[in-house]
Each structure stands twice: as C-alpha cells, then as structure tokens.
Design a protein that fits this description.
Blueprint lengths: L1 E3 L10 H10 L7 E5 L12 E2 L9 E2 L3 E4 L1 H4 L5 E7 L13 E4 L11 E4 L3 E4 L2 E4 L9 E2 L10 E3 L7 H9 L4 E5 L3 E7 L3 E2 L10 E2 L2 H12 L2 E8 L3 H14 L2 E5 L9 H9 L1 E5 L3 E2 L4 E6 L2 E6 L3 H20 L9 E4 L11 E10 L5 E5 L9 H5 L2 E5 L10 E6 H4 L1
Bound molecules: adenosine monophosphate and magnesium ion.
C-alpha cells in the first residue's frame, strides 16, 4: 500500500537513526512458558528470579581445618579436639576451650569464630597445636555473603547462560519462566538458486542464504520456520508472505528487494501491507526493506550472502533480540590496535571483515580482509569479527579501531 524512503532518494539515513527506528518498532513476545533448568540455556528470562534463601545459608568453613573460639583458646598451648564436622552435617555447639575438626563447606559450630587451616596445625592424638599466627574470623564464609533472601538475582530480559542457570540452582530454584521462542519465517528468493547436493545447472548458483539465515537465527535462539526458496514470481512471493504471516512473529527474506523488475518481494509487500525501503549510510550497503503485513513485521535483506551476513548482524539482530524480549542488544566491542593502513575513507560508516592476528613484533593486531567486495563469502570465514570505521575515518597502523568479534554477536 505504501512505500517511503524510496531507493531513488539520494539522502542516506544515518545508521543510528535506522537502528533506533528499528528497535523502537520491535514488540517483545508476551507469551511465557516455564522450563526446567536443564532446558533454560539461551532462553530469555521473562520473570525475574528472586532467591528464597540466603546463600550461604549459614556461616561455613572455607577450609579443611579446625574451628575454634579465638579468645577461649589463644592462651592454650594445646587444644583438645572435641568433635568432627564433615560437610553435609551439622555439629554441636562448641565446648569452650576446644576445637572442632571441620571440613570445607561444613557449618561453623555455634561458639566458634575462626577456622585454622589444617596446614597450620600439628595433630597430637586428640590435641592440636597451632603453628603460626591466628587471625580472628579467618576462613569463614559468612551467611548471605553471596545472596540475601529476597534478592533479585537475575533480571527479566536476560538471555540465560550457564552462569545464570548455575546461580539459580544455587538458590534451589529448579524452573524458570521464560519467553516463548520467537518464531521467524525465512525464505530466499531467486530462480537461479538450487540446493546443495543437486548438480549445478547452467546459470544456477547454490543457495547459501538459506543456511546463513537458519544458523544466525538458531544462534540467537529463535524457532526457524523455513519456507524454502521462492521463485521470482509475484504470486509465489505473496503465498510465501501469507504463510509467514500465519505462522510467524517475524518474516525474513533475502534478495528481491532492489528496484529490478525481477524483485517481487518489494511489489508483493507494497500490495499486501506496508514497506519502507531504507537506504542507510552504511557500507556494505544495500537497501534494507522493513515493513509490516497484517501486523507481522518483515525484514528483507540483500541477496548477496556477504551483505546478508553483515546486514543481518547490524540491523536484523538487534530487532530480533528486542522482539525476543532481550533488553540489551548492544554487542560487546573492543578497541584493538590496527595492523593495517586505510586511506580510503567513506562518507558512510563502514563494517569491514576483520580478524585478530599476531604481527611480526609479536603484538596482537586486527587486520581487515584485503578486498572490500561483498561477493566473497569466504571473507566471512576468514574473519572472526568486524572492524567499524566511522565516516571519514582514516587508519594508520598502530591506531586503535573498534572491533566487534562475531562471538559477541552470536
Ligand atoms: P538479489 O538481491 O536478488 O538481486 O541478489 C543479489 C545477488 O545475490 C545475486 O547475485 C544473487 O544471485 C545472489 N543471491 C541471492 N540470493 C542468494 C542465495 N539465497 N544464496 C546465494 N546467493 C544469493
Ligand atoms: Mg534475486
């Protein structure tokens, strides 16, 4: 029905503006489900986790050794051992003037205020002698020093990782309320595409985007609804979009969104809903299609596989993370020493395929792929991240540059 920011406009949209428009238009999934800890990895927490207990639940020994009351025993040459407290048991209140044999993690008995590690002690039958100085209060892990009862320990909107699941377990929590997985329908477009495993016919190319889409989405934790490849034909394109609308929270497609006469995604979307073609001031840059059909958002990325990878990483990823209910989608980035010179500054912000290497002086530096061409998919496997150059930025070896490792994106 409508289309704005047409590709014929020469005015480029700044990257930040495009990103904030995208992020603001993402609606987080509301449906929740409860999962056991075993199934919680990479899920998005929907209800914050609060602890019902103190952790540790009681003062306990940080060492294998002897628990005693410093004041009661300071003047004694030898101290009788009055009880033994292995981890998993609770001892008796400490008899004054004695020590308790104690093991790491065992509760410190009432009346004791210090644990002497066993390496500082000589055992003489049922007596001990302490060699060295004693610090009152030493080697005791205090009740609630990690978590206090009632504390919120994991915020909603967090993508659960091993450490979060371990922390929940440490409070006795066995299940977590997470967002339903985001359902993302994908389709590729093009009469030239055939699937790997088929013979390569004349004029054909293998469909790599289908695998790129699936992999990137699964890494983000989405449920993928693969609608396959759609031939360059209007009705087939409408059918794919309709299936996506029925089944998914978001539709993603590759190719078919420039202004060529074979670009049916654009035509179909304009008929069925709303489509904006954004020309963003970014390199590598192709128009990004963003629209809505019957309330379902649609993102169309360029067909070129390298452009897909970069465009998805910069634009689709944050939109998807927000839609999943994740509150912070900013990837971790580093300032790294450049191992390259760059004297071809661009008016647009530029994302270069890059990787960390060690130079001849043994210094860790980041280098960029020698070709800027976005037709070379092997540049993405060569790389382990992206260098981001600000508009107009020139680089000399030794300068600091922004580097976003792929591992912080996926
Ligand atoms: P398009 O945006 O449809 O004009 O495609 C741009 C370029 O990317 C063309 O060279 C296409 O053949 C190529 N391309 C499009 N889709 C795919 C795909 N799924 N896998 C690999 N290459 C593709
Ligand atoms: Mg095409």
């Amino acid at each position: 029905m409508s289309c704005c920011c047409s590709t014929s406009s020469s005015k480029l949209m700044p990257l930040d503006e495009a990103l904030s428009l995208l992020i603001r238009s993402a609606t987080p999934v509301v449906d929740e489900e409860t999962v056991m800890l075993d199934e919680a990895m990479d899920r998005v927490l929907s209800q914050p986790v609060t602890s019902n207990i103190n952790v540790p639940a009681w003062d306990n020994s940080a060492m294998d050794g002897y628990a005693l009351c410093y004041e009661d025993t300071a003047s004694l040459d030898q101290i009788p051992v009055s009880q033994r407290i292995p981890a998993g048991t609770t001892g008796q209140p400490l008899q004054p003037g004695t020590a308790a044999r104690i093991f790491t993690g065992a509760p410190v008995p009432a009346g004791a205020d210090t644990v002497i590690m066993q390496e500082m002690v000589s055992r003489e039958g049922e007596m001990i002698r302490i060699n060295g100085d004693v610090n009152t209060g030493a080697n005791i892990r205090r009740v609630a020093e990690d978590i206090r009862r009632g504390d919120e320990i994991i915020e909603a909107g967090c993508k659960l990782q091993t450490q979060h699941i371990g922390l929940a377990a440490s409070t006795g929590t066995d299940r977590l309320v997470v967002k339903r997985k985001l359902r993302v329908a994908i389709f590729t477009t093009g009469d030239e595409l055939i699937m790997p495993g088929q013979p390569l016919g004349a004029g054909k190319i293998y469909n790599s985007n289908r695998y790129l889409f699936r992999g990137l989405l699964e890494k983000l934790g989405c449920e993928v609804i693969d609608l396959g490849n759609v031939i360059d034909e209007y009705q087939a394109t409408c059918d794919a979009i309709n299936t996506g609308v029925d089944k998914a929270d978001l539709i993603l497609s590759s190719g078919g969104v420039s202004v060529g006469e074979e670009d049916y995604v654009k035509k179909a979307l304009e008929e069925m809903g709303r489509l904006d073609l954004w020309k963003i001031a970014v390199r590598p840059g192709k128009p990004l299609a963003f629209g809505k059909v019957k309330g379902v958002p649609f993102i169309g990325v360029p067909g070129n596989p390298v452009s897909l990878f970069v465009t998805f990483s910069i634009f689709a990823r944050p939109f998807i993370l927000r839609s999943m209910g994740i509150t912070d989608e900013t990837p971790v980035e580093y300032r790294v020493v450049a191992g390259f010179d760059w004297d071809r500054p661009d008016k647009r912000i530029e994302y270069m395929r890059a990787r960390l290497e060690t130079n001849d002086e043994g210094q860790k530096v980041v280098n960029v792929y020698p070709s800027r061409s976005s037709g070379i998919l092997s540049s993405v496997t060569w790389a382990d991240g992206m260098v981001v150059l600000e508009p107009g930025q020139q680089i000399a070896k030794g300068d600091n540059v922004r580097f976003i490792p792929f591992t912080s994106l996926y």
